[in-house]
Amino acid sequence: MSRYPTLRSCGYELDRTIGTGGFGKVKLATHTLTGEKVAIKIMDKTKLGKDLPRVKLEISALKNLSHPNICKLYQVIETESHCYVVMEYCSGGELFDHIVEKSRLSEMESRMFFRQIISAVSYLHDNGYAHRDLKPENVLLDREQNLKIIDFGLCAKPQGGMDSLLLTSCGSPTYAAPELIQGVKYHGSEVDIWSMGVILYALLCGCLPFESDNIDELFKKILRGKYVEPGWLSSGSKRLLRRMLCVDPLKRIRISELINDPWVRLGFGCPPSTKTNDIDQCKDMECLEAISQHCDIDKEIIWSRLSKWKYDSETATYLLLLNKKKNGCPVVLK
Ligand SMILES: CN(C)C[C@H]1CC[C@H](N2C(=O)N(C)Cc3cnc4ccc(-c5cc(Cl)c(O)c(Cl)c5)nc4c32)CC1
Predict the structure, then answer these.
(1) Which residues contact 242 (CB under 8 A, 6 or more apart)?
(2) Residues near 135 by Cβ (< 8 Å), separated by ≥ 6?
(3) Residue 232 has what pLDDT?
(4) pLDDT tens-digit profile of 78-110?
(5) For residue 289, what is the enclosing H or E element?
(6) Which contiguous run of DSSP H or E holds residue 306?
(7) 25 CA from centroid of ligand 1 (Å)
(8) In angstroms, rounded to a whole number, what is the distance separating the alpha carbons of residues 14 and 8?
(9) Among residues 51, 97, 126, 133, which one is catalytic?
(10) Cα–Cα distance, 312 to 316 (Å, whole number)
(11) By CB neighbour count within 10 A (0-12 exposed, 13-18 middle, 19+ buried), where does 254 fall?
(12) Is 261 annotated in the active site?
């Protein structure tokens, strides 16, 4: 008998555990009606304690975000004891493992990945969110090597908008900006740019710019902002890294400059796209028809419920049918 009978009754067949964390575990599962694979983050509410607000924050953020490089939310299921977050399955694993596998990436491959991160973070900031915990472990790949940013448990949506200052010190020290580890007030957008600089360095160099087993040593290195520039780095790469890993947040490159930076545009001739993934919000008649036939309810009634985006089983079925259609599979329900 499955440990999580709720999930089976909600239309998911559980498979193996694909990861764990302080929050609980993430399991691979199959959505029975569409046959699509999903990742389900399973949290025991009685054990979350002070982390419960982080969970609610992440769910709220994921409900408001729809972008090709941000992990898609399909459904939220809550019981007395557990919270289940059903999301897009990223079968390509962590970006971190991809870098380690190849020891380091070519400038062009780094650029191809980095443009996707710029696109996602620019969209995040435009929607008033700062991620605040950007690192290679929080960037996954799907089967087409598209990047998917995950883990919004530390994201912030400052009340006064992205120009207002934050104070909470959070995230992983290795990727944290100087102002964040100093405990001074900071702008969420500026600390995200610093973390993106650390990720770009990891892509191009296959190691981290600031490392130490001793936390005090690590903080000193970050606050000094000095790092090794390996011989293979082009002048364009070095110049961009210096503008991102700039200790003074006021002098650090801004996302609007980053989008138009010559290194970012090289070979593409255009800036990364900052559009939303509005396909998820649009009304797809073929998917509506499949659901309408399956539950014998009029398409317009189905759409009137779907367009409320309640992230219930109907939202999941619709979004997963859209996925099937995008992947060229037949738009049918079992
Ligand atoms: C180390 N972390 C604190 C947890 C780790 C758990 C496994 C997970 N994962 C992996 O590590 N693969 C290697 C497989 C995999 C495949 N698809 C996934 C889809 C979504 C997520 C996901 C996980 C969490 Cl904790 C989220 O908050 C969100 Cl928004 C999304 N994780 C996935 C995931 C990556 C993170």
Answers:
(1) none
(2) 96, 171, 172, 174, 175, 195, 198, 199
(3) 95
(4) 999 999 999 999 999 999 999 999 999 999 999
(5) helix 285-295
(6) helix 299-306
(7) 9
(8) 7
(9) 133
(10) 6
(11) middle
(12) no
> What is the 27 CA–ligand 1 centroid distance (Å)?
9
* pLDDT digit string, tens, across residues 118-138: 999 999 999 999 999 999 999
Give a three-class secondary structure readout of 189-241: HHHHHHHHHHHHHHHHHCCCCCCCCCHHHHHHHHHHCCCCCCCCCCHHHHHHH
Instruction: Please give the pLDDT value at position 278.
Output: 64
Element (H, E) at 262: helix 262-265
Q: Rounded CA gap, 179 and 185, in Å?
A: 7
Contact 65, 127 (CB under 8 A): yes
3-state SS assignment for residue 254:
coil
Ligand 1, atom 13: closest residue by C-alpha: 93
Q: Between residues 17 and 282, which one has the greater pLDDT?
A: 17
Burial 16-44 (b: 16+ CB within 10 A, else e): eebeeeebbebbbbbbebbebbbbbbbbe
What are the distances in angstroms from CA 28 to CA 16, 58, 154, 296?
A: 6, 20, 23, 30
Are residues 160 and 147 in contact, defined by beta-carbon separation less than 8 angstroms? no
d(CA 146, CA 142) in angstroms, rounded, equals 5
- Give me 241's structure tokens: 């890294």
Half-sphere exposure of 68 (CA within 13 A, CB side): 15
The helix/strand/coil state of 31 is: strand
**Dihedral sign from CA coordinates of 196, 133, 27, 303:** negative
In which residue are the tokens 């073929």 written? 286
By C-alpha distance, which of 155, 217, 221 is closest to 191?
Answer: 155
Write out pLDDT tens, residues 137-146.
999 999 999 9
* CA pair distance 232, 224, nearest whole angstrom: 23
Ligand 1, residues at Cβ distance < 6 Å: 18-19, 21, 26, 39, 41, 58, 71, 87, 89-90, 93-94, 137, 140, 150-153
